[in-house]
Amino acid sequence: MKIFSWNVNGIRAVLKKGELQRFIAKHNPDILCLQETKASEDQVDIDFPEYDGYWSSAVKKGYAGTAIFTKIAPIQVILGIPEDIASKYSLEDKYGDTMKEGRVTTLEFDDYYVSTVYTPNAKEDLSRIPMRQAWDPAYLEYMSTLEKKKPVIFCGDLNVAHTEDDLARPKENEGNKGFTKEERAGIDNIVESGFVDTFRLYNSGNGFYTWWSHWGGARDRNVGWRIDYVMASKSLVPIIKKANIHSDVMGSDHCPVSIEIQD
């Protein structure tokens, strides 16, 4: 079982370039989680006959959005964060209502849940840190609530590098968007709640990145950030056989990440 996650930075663009088609042909994921689709289903001419697609799109056209394409029929599809959890948190600010931005898609399968998330970024001036301090615990509460029923795998663009090993220039970026103590604490809380950063089961140290700036040839020089994750319940660790970053896959400023689970 291969589960992939990719912030495509616009699904129509990666389809037009042929990159999504090439990626699927090469890697053949069983479940593919996408973030920043920037489209609704009716705006996309897509032909992946092996997959059923489930979309959570923003009310605002061409913005945010998530989707999951799966070869395995889900038991249940849940879009967004359930209202009973979301209502506990302030998830709307001057930039918009994150509950209307298609940021979460979750599917229930026989043995576990798979959820994909596109976390709001903090903004260059850090003006969205208060949102992050609401969003991160809201989504974590959602995942923890699901985990009471069965194990959980959640993945996506969490818009934060957790440790100094997760970005090429930690000293220069200390306190900047994506590497503030507040954002990093969000990952700390995920780990303390019992979820595992699957990539770190098999890989240690730096040099492993999932996002690169468009400026200064950052990708060619591998001056990047690891801000895309696959997190999983501890109970699933014995069956997680691989965890990878696919930096050779082009088409977006992010690259895919994946895990392989024993069937």
Would you mind describing this structure in some detail?
There is one protein chain. With 263 residues, the chain is of the alpha+beta class. It has one domain: Endonuclease/exonuclease/phosphatase (Deoxyribonuclease I, Chain A). The chain is 22% helix and 27% strand. It has seven helices and 16 strands. The chain has helices at residues 11-17, 19-27, 83-86, 129-147, 170-173, 181-192, 199-202, and strands at 2-7, 31-35, 52-56, 66-70, 76-79, 92-93, 96-97, 104-108, 113-118, 152-157, 195-197, 211-212, 224-225, 228-233, 240-245, 257-261. The strands form four sheets. The protein has a six-stranded mixed sheet. A six-stranded mixed sheet has the order 5-8-9-10-14-11. Strand 6 (92-93) and strand 7 form a beta hairpin. Helix 4 runs parallel beside helix 6. The longest helix has 19 residues, at 129-147. The termini are close together. The model has no long low-confidence stretch (mean pLDDT 97).
CATH topology: Deoxyribonuclease I, Chain A
Tell me the CATH architecture: 4-Layer Sandwich
Order of adjacent strands in the largest pleated sheet: 3-4-2-1-16-15
Report the span from N to C terminus. Answer: 6 Å
* Number of E-state strands: 16
Order of helices and strands: EHHEEEEHEEEEHEHHEHEEEEE
Helical content band: 10-25%
Strand residue content:
25-35%
- Give the number of helices: 7
Total count of domains: 1
Low-confidence stretches: none
Mean pLDDT across all amino acids: 97
- CATH homologous superfamily descriptor: Endonuclease/exonuclease/phosphatase
User: Which structural class do you get from the secondary structure elements?
Assistant: alpha+beta
| Main sheet properties | 6 strands, mixed
Please tell me what the overall shape is: globular
- CATH class category name: Alpha Beta
Rg on CA atoms, Å: 17 Å
